[in-house]
Specification:
6-stranded mixed beta sheet, 4-stranded parallel beta sheet, 10 strands, globular
Amino acid sequence: MLEDQTTAASAAPWPAAYPQGYAVVDVETTGLSRDDRIISAAVYRLDARGEVEDHWYTLVNPERDPGPVWIHGLTNDVLEGAPLFKDIAEEFATRLDGRVLVAHNAVFDWSMIAREYARAQSTAPVRQRLCTIALSKELGLPLPNHKLESLAAHFGVVQRNAHHALDDARVLAEAFRPSLRAAASGGVRLPLLECRPLTEWTDGAARIGRQGSAPSSSSYGGGGTWRPSRKRQPCPYPNPGRYEPGKQLKQGMRVAFSGDTSVDRELLEDRAVEAGLHIATSLSRLTSVLVTNDPDSYTSKAVKAKQYGTPVIDEAAFGQLLRDVAPASDG
């Protein structure tokens, strides 16, 4: 099947609107929150048709505890002599410059990269990203789940060292090439999203959330705050109605959030947008589901949810549902 897709793609005219180059990226980090740090990074540069041009890898000293060593294997001893991010920022930038950033769950990798550049009082020279999870959904690949290992297995790519940035980036580059060719042969619009640079970094006490919001009691406060623009493009899918407990979320559903979340709220929102959901800033009778860790609170959204009978789920359940969002109905 892979050979058939490749042959068909090479015979079909290449879409003129497709990007001219890609940077397939993987970063390993000390954790998932906004104050966590990058500890290793890898980039495979690909040309317009997904062929590998070169690759690059570096360790990064996070100047803090390395986090889940049992996952990434990078101990304090290994990272002690590694360069700081500010020391590799320029080289990293040359790898990204003018290319579409490609990653598996790209909003996470982009968020971590953008925050590191904000700390270094700079911005990364990349303006668009492509999530391979979103692309696999656009292609309708028959995957059991959206883990990198499942995407790799589908295309016959062998993982040698999972959770090592260089090997994960290699695996993703090898899986992205046939995905890109299949998209080109089928005339599929690539799910490109804007990369908004983080333009403000403030040392001192953290203020979590958007400008003007109250301080959060979340344990993910960190030592500063980043405030990207949150203006979003309209959701391209119609609202299919309310979420039904026990079933999948569906593209176009209107999702509202209330209260503190353990994962940064803006990261959760970006993940939802990449899955095809609509972020609702207020709660109405059209809201499909409310995500809150405190359903018995007296926030305006929680109160309205009870009044309207809006389904309520917690953050953990929402995270699980995001892994497999049903496509929008035709028409």
